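Minimal example, chain plus iron/sulfur cluster.
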Amino acid sequence: MSIAIDREKCTACGLCRQVCPGSLLYSDGQGKTFIKYPKDCWGCTSCVKECHFKAIKYFLGADMGGKGSTLYTKEEGNLMHWIIVDFEGKEKIITIDKSKANAY
Ligand code: SF4
Ligand code: SF4
């Protein structure tokens, strides 16, 4: 699993680079992010959650949808929307209330 960064959508905010635990994300000459070692990405999704510009897509493995499905996130206050785009372009949205994330 890995991510892909859309250079056109990247605003060079740099937030994703601050959260990658593997220090895999780098800035190019224009401050935009690229992933230097995509094979080393273990899919923690930290960068996906941090990007507010839909510039980072996470590729879902076969066991999670596969066939080219991708995932990005959108935040609204305490709500985190996980937006899955399947191989036919159809969206499925899973919404998590972060204020209740630790409730059992
Ligand atoms: S968080 Fe998104 S917009 Fe900001 S630098 Fe990273 S990819 Fe670009
Ligand atoms: S998914 Fe995690 S490991 Fe992979 S590039 Fe993003 S922050 Fe780094």
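Residues 3, 19-20, 22, 24-25, 35, 41-47 surround iron/sulfur cluster (ligand 2) (CB under 6 Å). The chain has one domain: 2-100.
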